Structure formats: C-alpha cells, structure tokens
Amino acid sequence: MSIYKILIKLTVVLFFFGCFNGCKPKPKKIAIQTVEVSKKKDSIVQFPKYLNSNYVLGKFDYIKNSDFTLVPEENSSKEIYLRKKVLKAFLQMNAAALKEGISFTVISGTRNFDHQKRIWNYKWNDKYKNFPPLERAKKILEFSSMPSTSRHHWGTDIDINSLTNSYFEKGKGLKEYNWLLKNAHTFGFYQPYTSKKNGRTGYSEEKWHWTFLPLSSLYLKYYNATVGLEKINGFEGFSYAKELNVIEEYVNGINPKTLQNQ
User: Fold this and answer.
1) For the residues 121-135, what does the mean pLDDT come to?
2) Whole-model pTM?
3) Which of 41, 114, 153, 155 is the most exposed place for a label (fewest CB within 10 A)?
4) Residue 88 class from Cβ within 10 Å (0-12 exposed, 13-18 middle, 19+ buried)?
5) Dihedral, CA atoms, 221, 223, 226, 229, nearest 10 degrees?
6) What is the DSSP letter of 124?
C-alpha cells in the first residue's frame, strides 16, 4: 500500500473518531406556536343563566317573564314591556329631561319573534310586494329587522317620541335629540343606528332608537357566540338572510362608538 493511501485512510479514521467524541450535530429548527392568553378577568364574558339562544332570537314569552314589566301608561303610547332594569334607567333619564322641559314617550319596546314576523310579512306580502324578492328584502331591511335579528327581542331597546328622522331635525324634536346626544349615555342609553356616512353597515339611521348598552352589549356578544344564519328562518324571504349576510351587516351594523363602549 502506498504511503499516499495510508495517509488518506488515517485522515478518515481521525475525522470520524473526533466527531464521535466531540462533534455535536446542529439542532433541528422546530417551529413553536405561541398563544397569547389574556390574564384580565374581564376578558372572560360571564353570561347570566337565563340567557339562551331562544332569548336572543325572541322566542320566549316576555310577558310571563318576571324580569320584564309594563311601561307606565303616562310614559308609553300603548301597552309596552321592557326589562325592569331598562325601564328604571329610562324613567331616571326622563326625570332628568323633564327638569329641562323635555319629555320622552316610549312608542315601541320589546317585540318577540311573532310580533316581528307580522311586521316583516306585512311588508313582504303587501307594502313592498312589487319589488323583486332580493330587492324586497333589502327595502324592508332599511328600517325593519328580520325576525330573530331584532334588538327589540331583548327588551333593551326603545323607540321614543316619533318614528321619523325628520321629527328630530327641527323644533321640539331637535331639542329632544340634542338632549339625548348630550345626556343619554349617562343613563346607559346609546343610539345604535347612526348616520351611515362613517361606513356603518345595515339599517338606515334611526334617531328615535336607543339601546340600554349595559345589557344589550352582553346580549349581542351572546348572539354572536351562539347564533348562526341557519337559525334565522320561519318567515317570508328568510332564505335571503345568508345572501345579505344579515348577522354581520345588520345585527352587528351598529354605531362604532356603541361597540367601543361595550
């Protein structure tokens, strides 16, 4: 064997011997997923025991529910029910407004699924019957919710004094609206359907519609956590709920400031 071959073999043996004793292989890179967990207590929403899908869908008898009560005759235009906590806040707000010569009358409050269905089906079969189906649904949705998507199901939302925006744009109505814009939030009430000029989706502006946010914000969170489009049915044209994406565009198409105050 030539000295050259001997040297090559010796080099190979020394290389492997050295790696066996001292060479460390480079560790493989392993992708590690990290999950950020909030330690804030308020990050975990605690829902009350009475809250369920039927509640937020308006499929319960609020008249027999002990948490609801009639709005006093002097504060309402007809027989109207609200959650007791909402009515208490409304009466406090009205008392404060009376000191400045302003008064509020509730003209609509809690409406269950069947009530909302009557409103919807009337507009579908009569008022806007000449519109093509999809356009008919869009037209109704300018101011009226599909049953199972209305905030009025919850007993947290009120319509006051008038159902026209023009009433609140001049004279007595404008004074009332300006008072609400300045003071309503101190009693927990916010206007959910403001101007759509800021990019808000869904229903048209409703200056008359006010929501009691301490409760309605909780119910909206529960709605989003438990209700899917498949649960919106049982009325004329319900099949368009999916095409119109009513949960995202309408149920959640509310005043951004209202969302920030949740």
Assistant:
1) 98
2) 0.82
3) 41
4) middle
5) -130
6) I
